């Protein structure tokens, strides 16, 4: 059986110049075979640098990169079983679709019949059969992207790297291509590593997400893990929309914020420890005044098609964002209700390792309680 781990970063640092801050700082993680990974973060966080290190375009300043268990720090890009789909697709405008896809195979001096078969197979995979003679300049953005992907998969790489390949597409086409890319990855069974700064894209497509900030991995996990259990204020604020307020953990299962005490499902923190509280906008339910857990005044409202986006303030001055199918009026007093499960408590400056241990301990205690 083949080893599940295909890529491993071990304490990898990348610094482009001695007088500059490192772009990656002692980063360690593993990539498993046949999964869809997303590197997510703001501009300059280090996500494209990770892609370039895997591709072999640059070498790490410190640490080791392993491919199938072997160090590849100095292995040149053309000797790695990796192909990259760039943001601008990097197609040859003077070559037609067939020749763009066949380019790498001709470099390998593959026989004509084998090239023909492999190009036709790649075109079927990306739903472009019959486009062999089409000129690149005659194709739409979505079609060009498929050609770029076909050129990547025709060489049968073990990993495909995608550097923000959807960013130049319009919203409708970008959404369609998200589904197509995800389905293509499942059919091929190849490891995809996708770079984006679009949170919705990452949540929709990924098996696992790495959230990067300032050269560090803030948190990694499934889309549900990242969205429902953000490790800190940065992740909570970056992944989706969040209400984040300061509070104190009075004791296990009891948290204070907005000047009131609320039951919650969190435990394992110090009594009276300062914390951040996260409640997602969709977890807040509008009620009549006096019946909700919070009393707020509506400050603004926008119609977003499937819901209203309502901004309001409580008596302590905290702003609350609400996503609701129920309309409210600016200046109106309303109540906000939420379940205790909607409250997520984040320890200040907690590392991912500390967070994981706390969640694991919490899960074990729940399991023992259920026996």
TrEMBL record:
Gene3D superfamilies, per the entry: 2.40.50.100, P-loop containing nucleotide triphosphate hydrolases
Keywords: ATP-binding, Cell membrane, Membrane, Nucleotide-binding, Translocase, Transport
SUPFAM superfamilies for this protein: MOP-like, P-loop containing nucleoside triphosphate hydrolases
GO MF assignments: ATP binding
PROSITE patterns: ABC_TRANSPORTER_1, ABC_TRANSPORTER_2
Ranges where the ABC transporter domain occurs: 7-239
Protein's UniProt name: ABC transporter ATP-binding protein
Organism name: Paenibacillus yanchengensis
Lineage: Bacteria, Bacillati, Bacillota, Bacilli, Bacillales
